[in-house]
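User: My collaborator and I are trying to settle a disagreement about how two of our proteins should look. Neither of us wants to argue from intuition anymore, so we agreed to look at predicted structures for both before our next call. Could you fold the first one, then the second, and keep them clearly separated?

Assistant: That sounds like a sensible way to settle it. I'll keep them separate. The first protein:
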Amino acid sequence: MERFRRLAPWLFAVLAIATATPQAQAETPLTGAEILALAREAAGGEQWANARTLSLSGRAIFYGGTGHEPRVIADDYRMWRIFDPGRESAHGAGGKVRIIARSGAKRIFEVGFDGATTWTERGITPKAEADRFWASNFGFDIIRHAGKPGFSATRLPDDAIAGHRLYMVELTDPGGGQTLFGVDQQSHAIRSMGFRTPKGWHQRHYDDFVELQNPRWLQARHVTLYYDGRKANEVFWTDTRVNGEIDSALFTPPGD
């Protein structure tokens, strides 16, 4: 009995450690890298991260600088992407891209990048102007490269959008470009993205998700874009195709 009394404090201490350890582990905060790994898996894992091409079509609403009414509505809005597997810059042109917006038979605008040259329906865009344009528009794709050498992820204070609690993670690319991602704490879907641009703070909200198979790909069908807190446009994607064949001629500047 005397021996038990001497050992009792040690036994209770061991028992306390054994019972507290799982709880302590469960409460260990996720790191930025761990959160982005969860987002990667929710988005489609390796199939999503290593996708080669993306084709999207739907409609879009564009708002002006004043007033509340839409400036123009594109009932036919399309985008084609050929991804750059070695992308390291978050906010510059990469891979190949073409976007067309139409209202009925009328073309609203068109923009393309063939891997070297940016062009619109008006012709070739000077490089300085093109760099400013892409710096204000490109940013989401870089999250597919998180975890590669030269990238870092920093967790910032949590936030919420439209009732969805978010983990906020700032992803820094090898060149120092920063992009802030909001990851749903329940589904781990990427619900927001933001970065500084020549036009101000740019933020996108993602909603109405659909999960595709072969390859696995989580697509937001409703994307809302803001600059300095003001809604600039909304996109409603209705058709998504991943890894389909895209003719390189689609990205060739007019007249070439």
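The second protein, kept apart from the first:
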Amino acid sequence: MKLSYIILLSIAAIAYFYIQLWDDRLVTPQYLVLLFICTLYGRYKKDTNMTHIAGYIFVASSTTFIIFERGLINHVTPEENPLLQGIVIYGTQMAFSLITVCVLIFRVQLSRLISKSPQIQLTNFDGIFHWLFIYCSLIYLLAMLEHIAWTYFNMKSWTLIYDNFEGLIYISWALCCGGLLTMMICSPELKSNSQKRETS
């Protein structure tokens, strides 16, 4: 079986598994564990680019998870104002997602500020992951607009994003995990090609 087929199959399997669970209390920790494993693997392989890409995504995702798991948003927004509460919840998620987009776009520059490793360079994967978080940001924006329409304008039939919110986000997470898996598989080959270019 070709590598591309294995990758596509793994992405489909992860997406199906996440959607079947449909519970963020189960899916989110598994997603974070996969990100952490990829970060450790990059560290083990001494692949600075992989470590930083996976690490940035892990830090952003785990920070968002901690904020919502600790109920910090609930302490900020009053329960008697569902409009404001929804805006803050979706707005916070969108803000973190957009921050992650910026971090991933300028990943090489940030990595060079953090590390002096000569391995730091633009990889084929740097052009992938920020699109996933742009997609997530769009979902958060649509969810926030739908929430405003539902609460403020009393459009009770507008629940398309709300009803499918987890599934839409899980698709992005599955693609992210698939991309990281691909990066882990292809890392030795990419590293050897990079070393050949440096020596030539």
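Some points you might bring to the call about the second protein. The two ends are 33 Å apart (CA to CA). The CA atoms of residues 18 and 27 lie 6 Å apart.
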